[in-house]
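REQUEST ID: PR-0412
SUBMITTED BY: lab tech R.K.
PRIORITY: routine
TASK: structure prediction, single protein chain
INPUT:
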Amino acid sequence: MAMGAMVIDAIQRSVEALGDLNAEKAQQVIAYDVKVDRKRWELEDLCVDLIATQQPVASDLREIIATLSIVRDLERIGDYAEGIGKIVLLHGHEPLVRPLRYLPIMARRAVGMLDRSLQAFVQRDAKAARAICDEDDEVDNLYDQAYHDLIGTMIRDPSVITRATYLIWAAHHVERIADRATNIAESVVYLVTGTPMELNVSKY
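STATUS: complete
OUTPUT:
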């Protein structure tokens, strides 16, 4: 949960930094990813130690396997936040091609999915986890809208292709965050039911 809070904070700060092209805040997000990585290794080491010393079976073993999977998804989410921070720096002194329209909405949806997937893990709530997976389509649809909107901007003004592409990358990072939240929800379902299953297949 602490690691989850870390990456949620990183997501929110990276999107804020992109919205006003705040290079200082973006640098902070990029530097923060080192702490997220360290938390991953710390948690993975704890899981390996438990397996080695306790020889868990059945639901206990599933819990450790699910935790290992979730920790890796959280670390990747941290990477996506870092990526958005780097996109801020790529702009240099140039402005955004247009004010952010879809991306903040996508980020709020993705963060909500992530937070609730972690709550479902704590509560062992497979029903809530399945519902979270259904929400991924909403983020995918928002990404479609953002993508086509920015492609239209490029067509109308080829001089902004590079900056519009940066925003497409950023939107894709957020879309992938939602996918990772879905992965976490799937890990919860596996933990509770003992059956691994893919509940929602992203089209990206």
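NOTES: The helical segments are 2-19, 23-54, 58-90, 103-123, 126-134, 136-156, 161-193.
REVIEWED BY: pending
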